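Hello, quick one for you while I still have it in my head. No rush at all, and the record is pasted right below.
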Amino acid sequence: MPTYRERLSHFKSNLPNDFIEASGSTIFNYHYLDHLELLDNGLIDAILTNGSHIQISRRKIKNLKARLGL
């Protein structure tokens, strides 16, 4: 698996607009989003088409909703 040693913000600036930041350490392509699940603690899990679960940080929920038009 390739390793990227730069800050995520440097990598994120080179990505197309199809990517959403889920947390300070996670970015995903929203075209592979299957559905969202609201967790008991008020957080949101993004479930991708490959079955992966990505927890959206509280600070990024507003941005996620805006990008998805919710």
